[in-house]
Amino acid sequence: MEEPNEIPQGSDPDKTFPAIDVDKELNPGRNTNFEVDPVSSQVAATKEIQEQSEAARTQKEREKKDALQTLKSAIIISAIAVAVAGAIFAITKKLKEK
């Protein structure tokens, strides 16, 4: 009697399918030996690196924009303070003249 995983006698071993591990196929949770496709792994790694560089570039642009916005706000506030100080000085000068 032949065993289920044996190659049948009288046939060419190159033309038969390889034996499978039934326990691994029927219980995938027990299978800890995973085969990794190197091409897919490399593509995924490349995509992840591109996403990280894109995120870093976006973050830099956002920080630069925030810095420019902060500088712009500081200049506007300073200009308003100088205008208010000038107005107060002019009003005080007018009141002293009268």
TrEMBL record:
Keywords: Membrane, Transmembrane, Transmembrane helix. It comes from the Eukaryota. Residues 29-44 have a biased composition (Polar residues). The chain crosses the membrane at residues 74-92. Residues 24-65 are annotated as: Disordered. The keyword Transmembrane applies. The keyword Membrane applies. PANTHER family: TRANSMEMBRANE PROTEIN (PTHR37741:SF1). This is Transmembrane protein. It comes from Actinidia rufa.
